[in-house]
Design a protein that fits this description.
CATH class of the largest domain: Alpha Beta
CATH architecture of the largest domain: 3-Layer(aba) Sandwich
Family: Belongs to the sirtuin family. Class III subfamily.
Keywords: Cytoplasm, Metal-binding, NAD, Transferase, Zinc
Organism: Palleronia aestuarii
Strand content: 15-25%
Main location: cytoplasm
CATH superfamily of the largest domain: TPP-binding domain
Order of helices and strands: EHHHHHEHEEEEHEHEEH
Number of strands: 9
Helix content: 25-40%
Structural class: alpha/beta
Distance between the termini: 17 Å
Number of helices: 9
CATH topology of the largest domain: Rossmann fold
Largest sheet: 6 strands, parallel
Radius of gyration: 18 Å
Shape: globular
Cofactor: Zn(2+)
Number of domains: 2
């Protein structure tokens, strides 16, 4: 089974910027104010404005060739797709059973009772929870200081993997750094697909724009 961990570099060519993009959406906000539980408690309207903008940005984006290549690979081989991205571009390219370890822009969560539902394009802190009625609606994303989702499934997948691939994410920053170390400890070959080397401890790497290197890598596997 091929275990593929994707990060922001997968969706960058679709117009969804990485954390470090100069002039991008993230650069215009203080992450402590919009991506932490404390920030949400202090100013929920600001947080919803930020995620409404991200949701609109993602809704206007289209999957690129790398998304489509991963969906094609998954249709032909046993592949576990784990993403740190909160967009749905993999699913829109045809991928299935994608594990969103940092949540989804398309999801809403009640901060009071924990209910989850599909988010509208525009959300407000005044939106009532459909389960308990509380005005405690928040985006169903994992903020800094919160636990990523699906860690047990990820551990089980890493234990079964015959190849670990990190795509568009740094191999020196957690969780990717921890996952590659787990794979290496199990004797699983590791591969980095990235714009440039991240400095992580990978057995092999291919570098360049995701829309170019990922289709080429998939073509090679399926040849």
């Amino acid at each position: 089974m091929i275990f593929v961990l994707t990060g922001a570099g997968l969706s960058a060519e679709s117009g969804l910027g990485t954390f470090r993009d100069a002039g991008g959406l993230w650069s215009r906000y203080d992450l402590e104010e919009v991506a932490t539980p404390r920030g949400f408690a202090a100013n929920p309207h600001l947080v919803h404005d930020f995620y409404n903008a991200r949701r609109a940005n993602a809704a206007g984006a289209a999957p690129n060739a790398a998304h489509h290549a991963l969906a094609r690979l998954q249709a032909a081989r046993e592949v576990m797709l784990v993403t740190q991205n909160v967009d749905d571009l993999l699913e829109r390219a045809g991928a299935r059973d994608v594990l969103h370890m940092h949540g989804r822009l398309g999801g809403a969560l009640c901060a009071d009772c924990g209910a989850r539902w599909e988010a509208p394009l525009v959300m407000s802190p005044d939106d009532p929870c459909p389960e308990c009625g509380a005005a405690a609606t928040r985006p169903d994303v994992v903020w800094f200081g919160e636990m990523p989702t699906g860690l047990d499934e990820i551990d089980a997948g890493l234990a079964r993997a015959t190849l670990f691939v990190a795509l568009g994410t740094s191999g020196t920053v957690y969780p990717a750094a921890g996952f590659v170390e787990m794979a290496r400890a199990a004797g699983t070959p590791t591969l980095e697909l990235n714009l440039e080397p991240s400095g992580g401890r990978f057995d092999d790497g291919r570098y360049g724009p995701a829309s170019e290197i990922v289709p080429g890598w998939v073509d090679g596997l399926l040849a």
